[in-house]
Amino acid sequence: MNExxxxxxxxxxxxxxxxxxxxIPVFNHYQNDGMxxxxxxxxxxxxxxxQPIEVRILSSTRENISKYAVCELKIFVKxxxxxxxxxxxxxxxxxxxxKENKTPIYANVFSFIANVPYKNVGWENSINLKKxxxxxxxxxLEDYLQKIMSIYNSRNEKEYEQFFKDRTIEHTxxxxxxxxxxxENKASIFYGLPKKIxxxxxxxxxxVFYGNNKLVSLQTNDQPPGFVFESINKDEYGFTEMVLFHKxxxxxxxxxxx
Length: 258
Description:
37% strand
């Protein structure tokens, strides 16, 4: 394939689920209903080779996972921008059920091989953030929360492009975006957003590390890592800006990479 596009096929029922690839969260679902979805994962694949994938299944209560809970997971690859070409099965995790397994949390790491024509630097050469002062990291992340909120409320396209530049560049490369798709993405940056947003209480967040401790963010319960914004107009829905930061070196500031 010239432009291999990898995606997860996820089917679950009666449980919550979190999926990480290369120790970064790519998918989560915190509802107890049945769910089936195909989800793209090229953003989590920096280069060709072995890709560890961690599956976490959680109880929707503090008790054991329901005996009726099930999870099916497959990984497919297809040619990007060629829907008619079909897709090939790359890896399949055997069905996970809990008829005999009584536990509130299930976690297991598998791996699959990906072959891609690009190589993203991502957080590969970034520093170990676990060795940094956690209070300073939280303060810097809270400052960025305010900055992102300001960008959205002001609809400042240039600030948005600069702030998310590295993430956008690698996303463009890993999903083989065409020039028309890039233009469409730029034109729709603020499409569908509430007119005015505000952050949830910062005390609801905790500091979290991913990417073998090279990525950091804030996270609240039942949300992916990132910042949760609510509309000032309570009739409108809010949204979560999933965002992960890294530091290129010991003296640099945190920067968005995913």
